[in-house]
Amino acid sequence: MKLKTHKALSKRIKITKNGKILKRRAGQDHFNSRSSGKITRKKRRDVTLDPAHLPAIKQLIPRI
């Protein structure tokens, strides 16, 4: 049986050449004027997920 890719997850994460999992930081849509500049700058960066999540992600995205 051919495994299907979980499209919602594949749109939200990026897997680098070395196998790191990157995702965008949450909460960047609106209500950003009330947060401090430090928090706003942090939200622009991507976050590296813990390698412990890799087995679950491999199950949802079989092409890894």
TrEMBL record:
GO terms for cellular component: large ribosomal subunit. GO terms for biological process: translation. GO terms for molecular function: structural constituent of ribosome. Keywords: Ribonucleoprotein, Ribosomal protein. It comes from the Bacteria. InterPro entries: Ribosomal_bL35, Ribosomal_bL35-like, Ribosomal_bL35_sf. NCBIfam families: rpmI_bact (TIGR00001). Belongs to the bacterial ribosomal protein bL35 family. This is 50S ribosomal protein L35.
